[in-house]
Amino acid sequence: MANKITVYLRLMRPANIVTSVADVLAGVAISGYFLNLHITTGSLYPIALLCLSTMGLYAGGIVFNDVFDAELDKVERPERAIPSGAISIKEATYFGIFLLLWGIGFAFSYSNHSGAIAVAIAFFALLYNKVSKHYAFVGPLNMGLCRGINLLLGISIVATSLDKWYYLAIVPILYIFSITMISQGEVHGGNKRNLYIGGFLYLVVIFAIHLISAQQGHEVMLLTLMFLLPFAWMIYRPLFKAINDPTGKNIGMAVKAGVISLILMDAAWAAAFGAFGAAVFIACLLPVSMRFAKVFAVT
User: Fold this and answer.
1) Contact at 8 Å (CB) between 118 and 159?
2) Shortest CA distance to 128 belongs to which of 186, 189, 185, 176?
3) Other Cβ atoms within 10 Å of 130 Cβ, number
């Protein structure tokens, strides 16, 4: 039984799931929900529902990634759960369906707005896994959409905030687009062109968050830099190493750092919108994700 649970955890990539929760918490901060929030069971309940939703949606998407890649993974990643024989494709498929329905169900249990967004996340996750990942430009864009809409899932905690802040989804779209482009050389090594493009898009993301924080005042900008600067260090250090030596191993490390560093980016979002306490809490998820990353694969 314990071994089977470990197999399911391997399928879900726990370190990545933590980053999806951070996305939703950042969205909640952007919505203004945390401002003047009185910590009670009733006030935390909507946050819990949306966090449970994103956990199911992200885990379900990851499971279907392995389901659709089962044949390819026999050659490129035989250590994964399905090609290693630890779990069958049929079992993984049922598990993936359960997780996606879990995510959609928890979102609808909060509001129809959140439920519709959850359905969109599930749709784009499946579209990426089955079709678009095989295309150099559309694949990264599709994956970015999943993360951008995930941010909107958090913002939907205050439905009226969606009309005001929906365009901010472009930032995580750009960020994940860059990571996904970089990851295309993870198995066999890559060319430096994708790495340079990824590095430039990283800079655009950092500047966008910094610009938004600056609009909130000098103090907010400085507090946001407390998270943006470590974020920049975490993503650029392995990326520079990969640019100097674009082997599959180095690119894989750059991708892993990019995914886990999402937590600091989300913390910066929260700080930029004045929710400094929430930003600190989100940042505290980083060691949790890093701990999971030492035990379970990230990519």
Assistant:
1) no
2) 176
3) 13
